[in-house]
Design a protein that fits this description.
oxidoreductase; Aldolase_TIM; 3-stranded antiparallel sheet; alpha/beta; binds flavin mononucleotide; 2 domains; TIM Barrel; about 35% helix; about 15% strand; globular; flavoprotein
Length: about 325
Amino acid sequence: MTLPAQLQNLRIPLIGSPLFIISNPDLVIAQCKAGIIGSFPALNAREKDGDPILLEAWLTRINEELDRYNQANPDTPAAPYAVNQIVHRSNTRLERDIEICVKHKVPVWITSLGARVEVNEAAHSVGGITLHDVINDRFAHKAIEKGADGLIAVAAGAGGHAGALSPLALVQEIRAWFDGPLFLSGSIATGDALLAAQAMGADGGYAGSAFIATEEANAEDRYKQMIVESGASDIVYSDLFTGVWGNYLKPSIAAAGMDPENLERSDPSKMNFGESREKPKSWKEIWGSGQGIGAVKEVVPAAKLVDRIAGEYFAAFERLSGQVARYR
Ligand SMILES: Cc1cc2nc3c(=O)[nH]c(=O)nc-3n(C[C@H](O)[C@H](O)[C@H](O)COP(=O)(O)O)c2cc1C
């Protein structure tokens, strides 16, 4: 199946994934100008009571800056941006945020934690497309039945709320029946891994944790540094902190006075993804990350990270192309 217009003409087939708190207009604009889809969760735009709606201001700025950039660079235009909606009953802002995204004609909508027909219809009403993230084949079927245009397969090793399935198994099962847009999420931090996602059958990759260690990301320097210094064995999979299984940096859990090797199980009835996520104060500095961060060696501007991934991607492509004759 041909990809929708929004997903064609990227510099490399990569989406910078939405990161709670961390993704902001600076990061999104830098990602899009560098040629990959940049995204942010709508809930990251939080105004104080009585202040103008921040999501409006963010979308106005992103649309204007990218329009200006495209006029100045007609041969190498920016990639489109995406807004992530958390479709969970605790998100009391969902309806308002959908209206704002319709008003600003958001081109790509990423939905998480729930598939709903009306969100897909809202995106389609302004020519947008929706990508729904799923951790297994059953949820993938549900999302497509509800009208999503494409899927993000969130496999084991992804940062934030992650699945438990091997990316090989997950992509294989979804591709057995779905030929629409499919992006793979989980530990993609190099161009080699991005090409591997395509070799498996996905159309592209979805990378989050590597972008935490960028200058634009809204994260504390200590968090960025911990990403730089950590590797796969520093990550623990737990449902304690949000009620949903996810991957976290062990050193941040230890710093909060807990033993990352012996974490309790959570109470799922306490799940809250609304504006006021009540958490013990000591959890504020428990930091999410996927397993792919061994590839992250320094904090750099987002454009430089995209340059590195793009360089590796094309080098990996050539390396493998050179091997085709040997196996044919
Ligand atoms: C700190 C952090 C926050 C995240 N917040 C969100 C979020 O608000 N919405 C969402 O759909 N995904 C969120 N994710 C998941 C990512 O979108 C994506 O699936 C993941 O980062 C990909 O794996 P990687 O980090 O190994 O690249 C988050 C991930 C991290 C690490």
